[in-house]
Q: What sequence folds into this?
């Protein structure tokens, strides 16, 4: 990857490489965009990946069965959300294909692909989802949108050249056999 592609994770790098003396004893826990909504509905909140996360409401088995039979909405706003601009001069597709064993060049506009993030030695660091942004998108850029693991998002951002850190965004996942019906309501 060229220098143009690797210059963009500086502010995360500073945080990732703090000395032990600079790391606070207690890391501040952030709240999700819908924290009050989760609490008002009895969500059991626990710290995970730097956020207070709802892990259950009525109980694990009841919720598991509901999602398997109907549909469930999951707040995954704690996940790392990365934007890659293809209009900044670097060969973004080549840079992404150097760290993802996926056909990024062949990824259609508005299409998403599951992939892995590779270490320099070819080992697997983690899994992720990558989307080629359509011309009309909420970020108003040409490029790619990637969702990475919330617990390792700092390390993954440093491993991927060209990542832009943005403000936390609301991110939900709808799962279950009745998801199309749930989307209509």
A:
């Amino acid at each position: 990857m060229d220098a143009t592609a690797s210059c963009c994770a500086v502010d995360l790098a500073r945080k990732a490489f703090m000395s032990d003396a600079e790391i606070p004893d207690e890391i501040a826990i952030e709240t999700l965009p819908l924290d009050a909504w989760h609490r008002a509905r009895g969500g059991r909140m626990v710290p995970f990946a730097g956020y207070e996360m709802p892990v259950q409401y009525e109980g694990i088995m009841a919720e598991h069965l509901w999602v398997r039979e109907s549909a469930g909405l999951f707040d995954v706003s704690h996940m790392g959300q990365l934007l890659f601009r293809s209009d900044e001069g670097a060969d973004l597709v080549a840079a992404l294909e150097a760290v993802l064993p996926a056909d990024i060049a062949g990824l259609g506009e508005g299409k998403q692909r599951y992939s892995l993030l590779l270490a320099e030695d070819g080992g697997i660091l983690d899994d992720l989802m990558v989307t080629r942004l359509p011309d009309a998108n909420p970020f108003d850029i040409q490029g790619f949108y990637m969702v990475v693991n919330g617990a390792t998002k700092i390390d993954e951002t440093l491993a991927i050249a060209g990542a832009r850190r943005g403000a936390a965004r609301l991110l939900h996942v709808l799962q279950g056999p009745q998801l199309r019906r749930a989307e209509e309501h």
